[in-house]
Amino acid sequence: MAEHFEENESSKETGFAAFGANRWLLVAVIALVVVTGIALGYGYRQQILVGHLTAQQSMSNATIGEMQGQLSAVTAKLNDMTAAQLARRARRKARGSKNSRRASTISKRS
To answer: How far is 38 from 40, CA to CA, in rounded Å?
Structure first.
């Protein structure tokens, strides 16, 4: 009977040791599942954020293109106005030189 009791004691120790090892294995598996879930959730969130940023970037690029077009139109108008002013000045200068020639010829006649 003592042998039978010792046999049961040794199987209890092995059972508890095996249960302890299985418990740590179960804890490790649960921790890995939790970490995997968090990583997948984070990856999904980042993918959504990248989609939003891509849409925002394309809208910004469209706005920048529109503003560049407007700036080019304003620059062209400004260049046209500058050219018109230079042409007016040249005409005034030409008229002024004609008038000064007339005045000099008139003063020579007198």
So the answer is: 5
Which amino acid would we find at residue 61? Answer: N
The single-letter DSSP state of residue 1 is: -
Q: Confidence class of residue 65 from pLDDT cuts 50, 70 and 90?
A: very high
Determine the straight-line distance between the first and last CA of the chain, rounded to whole angstroms.
160
Tell me how far CA of residue 109 lies from CA of 38, 49, 96, 99, 101, in angstroms.
104, 89, 20, 15, 12
pTM: 0.52
Burial grade of 87 (CB within 10 A; 0-12, 13-18, 19 or more): exposed
Quick one: how many helices (H) and strands (E) in the chain? 1, 0
